[in-house]
Amino acid sequence: MHSTLQPLYLLHWSLLVGAVGILTSDCIGQNDLQEADAMLQDFVLLMATLFDTTKCTTNIHILQHLASFATRRGPLWAYSCFAFENMNAFMKPLVHRTHHAKEQIGCALDLFHGLMDFVK
Question: What per-residue string of b and e applies to 68-102 under the rule 16 or more CB within 10 Å gives b?
Answer without folding.
Answer: eebeeeeebeeeeeeeeeeeeeeeeeeeeeeeeee
